[in-house]
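Before going further, learn to read the protein records used in this course. The integers have meaning only within a learned vocabulary of local backbone shapes. The record below shows the convention in full.
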Amino acid sequence: GSMSGKPIEEFNKGLHDFYNEISSDDTTSQRLEVSLITFSHVVQTLQEPALVENFTMPTLIASGSTAMVNAVNEAIDKVASRKQWYKSTNPLSYVAEHSQKADQDVDALAQRIKLDTVNKRYAFLPIGVEGANMKVLDKIQGNIPPMKLQGTKFSSFFKWLSASMGTVVTAEEGQQVDLSAGADDWMAAFTI
């Protein structure tokens, strides 16, 4: 609900820009799967992991409270499940991966993310918007500190994200990549 009005409008614009950027890059569009999980008082998977050619990006609405812990756990489980599917079917694997409700176990989520990122199961990018509880995001960070979006620069963020995913999917396995280029367009600082 806190995203109502201009924030959700800007987020939707950025999300659609991200979809268009990924769609227009032949390599990224054939390697990067996107899943979309929303959360208010309930967690809902709007898009199961799929290449962008296999779905149309929805327009989101803001409502309800914030069940962030449940949503992040759902996203982590989806990534783990998808990676397991890739291992069992043996194709090349490229998988990519967001206030708190009082009854959610932030400490357990923080431990899970720290362990998973140390073991390189995924990268977790904690990003907050205006009014976000940055202390919670700081607590659940893996190996990348939380970042704060400047205003409602969702388009800049999603443009950076699509360029970064293009870099990731073309990198050799085990190659270290620098994703900081272009991040200064959407946030105050970027440190890895």
Summary: Residues 91-102, 188-192 have pLDDT under 50 and may be disordered. DSSP finds six helices and four strands in the chain. Residues 68-89 form the longest helix (22 residues).
